[in-house]
Amino acid sequence: MEKPCILQVHNLKKYFIVNTDFFGRPTAYLKAVDDVSFFIRQGETLGLVGESGCGKSTLGRTIIHLYKPTDGEILFNGQKIKTQQQQQLLRSSMQMIFQDPYASLNPRMTAGDIIGEPLAIHNLASGRDRTEKIAQLLHLVGLNHEQANRFPHEFSGGQRQRIGIARALAVNPSFIICDEPISALDVSIQAQIVNLLERLQAELGLTYLFIAHDLAMVKHISDRVAVMYLGKIVEIADSAELYREPQHPYTRALLSAIPIPDPAVEANRKRIFLTGDIQQPLDSLAGCKFRSRCKEAVPLCAEQQPELIDNGAGHMTACHLIGKQ
Ligand code: SF4
Prior knowledge:
Strands 6-7-8-3-9-10-12-11 form an eight-stranded mixed beta sheet, with helices on both faces. Strands 2-1-4-5 form a four-stranded antiparallel beta sheet. It has a single domain, classed as Rossmann fold (3-Layer(aba) Sandwich), CATH 3.40.50.300. By secondary structure, it is of the alpha/beta class. 32% of the residues lie in helices and 23% in strands. 36% of the residues are buried. It has helices at 56-63, 84-93, 111-121, 127-140, 157-169, 187-204, 215-221, 239-244, 249-256, 263-267, 299-303, and strands spanning 5-20, 26-41, 45-49, 71-76, 79-80, 94-97, 175-179, 207-211, 224-229, 232-238, 309-310, 316-317. The structure holds iron/sulfur cluster.
């Protein structure tokens, strides 16, 4: 039986004003997230991939209400997030792990204070209880309680990310947005952090939105994968299906760039190089946003924006050529 949805996002938009007229009225918007809809089931990991600037981090930050949505609906456990009180409640159930563990940790606070801060803010533990909880959290992420008195600069990059994870876990969240949690780490450390996230998911029943541009790592950790291009989801499918049978021309190009660990197969790998200018995600551009780089574009692509359509078994693609051939 399929698990219930923990998160449902309907037609979410996040526009930033980039120009105003003489009276301060907006005249141009950057459409960082443009009419995005998807869901995540309890206990699953949805990978979110795309090039830098495609809006994937903005999408994560809008879901957790670090950015106010311009329009659209976010349901968490079936409940709409509308009031400030609901947003505060949401902050304990939904947490975020950031890309740069050094920049996201206060250099003047010890690891123990950093992890204990959300416990204090949410009135979850004080005094001795808080100290014990901090020690448990350090242990949970593979550190030890003696490290609670050290400052961020005394830890390696991987250890700092473990502190960031412990801080996120302090309030017992059920859903975590992992915003490129391994991008700033050495390759040798990346697998350790991914293994830690997988272990924590199994032990604590967590659900993840895993944002990354390392497609090989996303394949490894994700149950389903969504591909984003200029503020829109262009393809979403089960991880194995998407990597085996990518449908959207952009997804095919992205996946063709992944090296294959078998030298014989790798020698025959055909890389698809994207050419053409990337459109700016400004205002309303008619047609498909990928058309300036798409070798398969047809006249309809300049006129009409393709809808994200289910082509069977939850494999959804936004391309005029898919499902109509
Ligand atoms: Fe290419 Fe047209 Fe499909 Fe867009 S809709 S990906 S331009 S073929």
